[in-house]
Amino acid sequence: MKQILCLIFVTCSMLLQAQEGTPSVIRGSEQYSLTIKTYIDSGDSLVNDVDVYLFDPVSNDLLETKTTTDGEVTFEIDPQVEYEIRTCKEGFLKGGISIYECNEGDEVLCSFGADEYIFIAMGGEDKPIAYFDVYLALTPLKLGSVYELENVYYDLDESHLRPRGKDELDELAKIMKRNKSIKIELSSHTDSRASNEYNLELSQRRAESCYEYLVSQGISADRIIPKGYGETRLLNECSDGVECTEEQHQRNRRTEIEVLEYEPIECEPSLDVDFRVKDLQMDSDR
Predict the structure, then answer these.
(1) What is the CATH T-level fold of the domain 2-138, as seen in this structure?
(2) Residue 249, exposed/middle/buried by CB under 10 A (0-12, 13-18, 19+)?
(3) Which listed CATH number (3.30.160.60, 3.50.50.60, 3.40.50.880, 3.30.1330.60) goes with 146-261?
(4) Whole-model pTM?
(5) Sequence-ordered alpha helix ranges (H) in 16-125
(6) Which residues have C-beta within 8 Å of that of residue 151, sequence separation ≥ 6?
(7) For 124-134, what is each residue's pLDDT tens digit?
């Protein structure tokens, strides 16, 4: 879907004799449009009825609110002003991106946090028309949803949290404080190296380390179930006796949360943003 939309957009732009945007072209633009397109991160389906908030990041003031129709909304913006975009829809994690002036190559504007974006400037130098299309993935939040936590890693054979792991758990604590109905299982997993018994015990200690940290941050203990699965839930073929690369073993070394209880909360303008499903990073733990 995204690829088709991109092709249609670029084709139409060519027909209108589009020219690449440059800082000299965009200054003084009388028409400058930012289009946000929301879709489900597990596919290309566009999502309707998403509240999209446009914020001033300097004052934190809410500038405008719109709701997606046919999966998109459009704001008229100033190319020399930075913006923060936030999304909210019941049943989804809160999303967010930043829009800023970058002047990189042919692009005047760039986006941090967007899945894809397209910048095109059209018209003459006196009255240019600029378009900035941004694709923003939404992550569903429902019973049974499972998320991997980025950067929750440990030293070899240890269960003590690293500073970056604490930062990630801080974000999880914020989500749980905003939505007090969420109850989770917090699980730790290892690769297949070492014995089954050792991996099971190590993963349980690591899960309990996360549990204790969240409780220290004010999350009620009865909302978290720590569970170590050791090597019992491998995501690939790298079981005992199978030769695998370090990257393949890393795929199995992960920390996850599963949503056990959840009640949607009503949307309201906020600069809050939830974590997104992330790819695992390479580390040195087991």
Answers:
(1) Immunoglobulin-like (2.60.40)
(2) middle
(3) 3.30.1330.60
(4) 0.72
(5) 23-26
(6) 162, 164, 165, 167, 168, 281
(7) 665 567 888 99
